[in-house]
Amino acid sequence: TVDLTQRIGHALDAALFPGNPRVRRWDGVAELKTSSVANPNTGWEELAQDGIELKFATGSYRVGDYWLIPARTATAAIEWPQDSGKPAFVAPAGVLRAFARLALLGFQADSWSPIADCRPLFPALTELTRLDYVGGDGQSVKPNPLNTPAVVALPSPLQVGVSNGQFPVANAQVRFTVDAGTLPNGTNTDVATTLANGVASIAWSLASDPTKPVQHARAELLVAGQPVTGRYLPVHFNAQLALASEVAYDPSGCADLLSAKAFSVQEAIDALCKRPQGGGGGCCVTVGEGGQFPSLDRALRTLLEKERLDICLCLLPGQHTLEDDLNVTGSRRHRVEIHGCGPTSRLLVRDQVFQFDTFGTLALQDFTLIRTGNLESLSFVDCDDLRLSRFDCVGSATPGNSLLRIGGSQRLVIEDSRVLADNNESKTLGLLLEQVGDLGAFKGAFRPTAIVDGHLPEFAAELSRLSAEEKKRMSGAIANMIRVSGTANAGLSQRELVALNAMRLGISNATAFALAVQLEQLGNAMLTNTPVFALALKDFGDVSLVNNTVRGRITLFGEGEDSPFPGRDLLGRLSGAINQTEVSLEPAGNLNLERNRLGGLRLSDMVLKDVVANARGSLPVCANLRVTDNQIDSELDHYAGVNCALNGNTLQTQDEVGMIVATQAKVIGNFMRNKHRLYAVAVAPESFGNGSLTITPV
Is the CATH code 2.60.40.10 the one for domain 126-242? Predict the structure, then answer.
């Protein structure tokens, strides 16, 4: 029996221990004394039972520290850790204590004040409800410029979700508030209830007010109809009106709009609308009927006189002519672009000079230029960066006056264009019409401009619709023309005879498309039955011709003449002179010809004639000449470069291919049906896979 009155000084208050109270027995109480560890024989205290002695080393002890002393009845021994055969001193087995920072307090003027609450606060498990964004943010809608109606509905509703952990909460109330526009109840505040999936949705109509381009909405979770401050974070939404004034515009490519400080689409459109009627709009100055200038030459002269350095001209649809010679000189700081509207923009140059001299950048694209009358070259001189793109140029040329003459360009690109030169007369056409009278109705198919004016397919379609009897009669007349000998066809070239024979074979059963191809081939053969010079290049840096049709020769390092091709003996003499360094190859520019239809490539007689005749001097050649994947309808060509490559070309020659002059050369994978030679001068090209092509060193 335990007498608590004696133990604790008063009777037990049973109300404090309503459920099965217990009493813990302590076998002894003693004053704790510490002793030096160094003396093993002193400081031992005997417990009140069984002769067990304890010794406490000097140190710090706390209320609640305890040790367990296993005593075994069977062995009458104490199981205690040993240290060198003696009982070891061990730390208390408990009680373990942990500490957490609760708050940071400040003490000043004899009083404490809280600085920070350091407790990690979190809600109870039953209160882990969340409000999350689901969808509808960042939408855009076009307003009515007249503000009618006053609001415009967004295409998708605003959506939020309410969940408790991973479980959706149904029938929760969410209040939506907008700063502009209206909600379904016609005001700026409305309440939506979550469905079984925990999602609350609401439609929002923005105010159609350009002064409020960005509008905002807020969603709050309600508890008992009211938001609980600090308990749930709100969800915010943004929506905007699709306004041109809010879309940035970069006017750096348009001097007019840059000077007008048009940095938004709205400002750019407004600036264009303020231009005089007939201006045509756009960033370029318009030329033509209804444009800002009536003619290209007047536009260029006027803008250059105004010291405009950046000039962009647009040739409006229709046929354009020049008022006077177009002979303009700029500077390296001038950048000029002239573009049209594709085949619908045509510029006729009649007996007039057409020359651009000294421009930093010059680009001509998307129009057709037709030169008639005066056979002086269309000239581009000292234009550092020159680009002709989707540019069709048609006209007659003579020796010494190529259709196009380009010199002094550091960078020249001609792409997706047609340079169509002709010999200004076709004796074959008169002979053809004389002997094949039925072709008289189709003579327009053989005009120099037939390829670009759209008439060629029309003539082909009309030809395909002839009766079988008419086709037979026409085919027979062409066959008879080919067969006859003597003066009747003495002027026909081999290429013309081949084209005539293809025409004869195709008339009977070819489609209109195939007939158009045959008419084009025959027309080209007749228009180039004597040497025609399409393009002359002089003093160039990097030149690329890609995906073009060139009717006539390309001449390098000057204008071309109708000179005979050097015989084999002269080529052998030239080869020896190069190998003995009596003739030097002078690299001058890079030329890349890729995916073109070409009418020949030659060195200018001005640089070749004396060197070949005297077997001494310097011969300008390309530093790098790459001729790749072209269709070449010519013979007796000159391929001259320090490094020279002819790869993957289709050679449709009626005579020897020509000569290749190089230090290193590769002739690989070219296609050729008839067996003809390519003379290798001063070089042994690497070659294979060239069909019937024979490479002959000289």
Answer: yes
